[in-house]
């Protein structure tokens, strides 16, 4: 923690990622157009799968994408490791959301599509990635589709390696500070949330692991998936090392 940001009179409370920031998460993500995201994912369905009706969003956060797909007529559900995030999703009227881990999704149903979007996969250390792909493979019906995204190390180094911002949200303010550790391949993000006229500081430290796209593809294929493609930033052009975000599409084919 950056000690210069904390005064001696302040009380500091620490928590796991997305515990405290759940209440301001939608504010932090206000720049995201979930309709555009859903449009692109639907295009992936049309190109690489068939008759998608039931969608499971792993790492669904506050449920914005689950809600968007529900509006479009899908049976959409989601889970997230953070209960406060799920609580916020339920406050939006969503019922089919629950607390769950990508390693233990807490569902035995088969799904037409699984999603793992907006950096969710980066919260997995490399020793968990294979297990998650096996779990998701077993949750999909034959011809089901998995879509997940990654950010590149190039993008992290140029946009997030030395980034900070501050904001105000009703009764509290917040500060976000980011840095990248290339040897660890780890992106660090600190959140300080100030409440009660800045007397209390709520603190979270997030770690995201930035591995090459090839690593994720190798792990997925070893888990039984058929690789369909990696695509640059909401297009169907091939992704590359200088891409900002790459969507990777995998399918479960007949054995």
Shape: globular
Straight-line N-to-C gap: 50 Å
CATH architectural group of the largest domain: 3-Layer(aba) Sandwich
CATH top level assignment of the largest domain: Alpha Beta
According to CATH, what is the topology of the largest domain? Answer: Rossmann fold
Arrangement of strands in the largest sheet: 4-3-2-5-6-12-11
Radius of gyration: 19 Å
CATH superfamily of the largest domain: Vaccinia Virus protein VP39
Low-confidence stretches: none
Number of strands: 12
The total domain count is 2
Mean pLDDT: 93
N-to-C order of helices and strands: EHHEHEHEEHEHEEEEHEE
Total helices: the number is 7
Kindly state the percentage of residues in helix.
25-40%
What does this structure look like?
Strand 2, helix 3 (64-71) and strand 3 form a beta-alpha-beta unit. The protein is of the alpha/beta class and 255 residues long. The mean pLDDT is 93. It folds into 2 domains: 3-27 and 154-209, no CATH class; 32-152 and 211-251, Vaccinia Virus protein VP39 (Rossmann fold, 3-Layer(aba) Sandwich). It has helices at 25-28, 34-48, 64-71, 83-91, 126-139, 153-160, 213-222; strands at 11-15, 54-58, 75-80, 97-99, 111-116, 140-151, 162-169, 172-181, 186-195, 200-209, 226-232, 245-251. The strands form 2 sheets. The chain has a 7-stranded mixed beta sheet, with helices on both faces. The radius of gyration is 19 Å and the shape is globular. The N and C termini lie far apart (50 Å). Helix 5 (126-139) packs across helix 7. The protein has 7 helices and 12 strands.
